[in-house]
Model the fold of this input.
Amino acid sequence: MELKQILKVLLKNKVLIILFTLLGLAASGGVYALAPKPIFEASALLFISRPCDTGSQNCYTYDGFYAQQAAFHYSDTVIPLAKQLGADRAVRKSEQLVEVTNVTNEVGVIKEKAEEELRQLIFRIISESEKLNQSGDPSFKLQLVNDQVTVENVSPNLYIFLIVGVLSGVGLGVLLVALKEYLAS
Done:
């Protein structure tokens, strides 16, 4: 069969393809409506710093490099501390940045509550970090970047449901048209 013939058959049966596309769309909308309540993922970046003595001549050479390396290695302490205090995920994003993520999957949790829970967790992480630093190097500083917490709805995603519904409807419609043409010949 040539491409022209295939297109002619598809156009001849466009009502069937559109019907199955709408059925797929309706089915995906129904599944979305029955899906569990939204799951929010709140994340924030923590900046780890260890300032050097700016009065020192070596601040912008050796001391500055040492301070940066010390902050990098201190993130190895911050990551397990965050997990121990309840973070779902804590990962190093760069030498001095650690991303802390908390996933709320409780029914009825709203976006603002997810953000507030992460802010409380960040406060506990910073407080515990300061307590740890009292016995070690108290010059380490841990702070929330731009005082910003990002909250995203990670599940269920309406757009993905709709795209899957449309594609499966079109696919099923084309498959039925092909089967119908095969059986007719």
Observations:
- The chain has a mean pLDDT of 84.
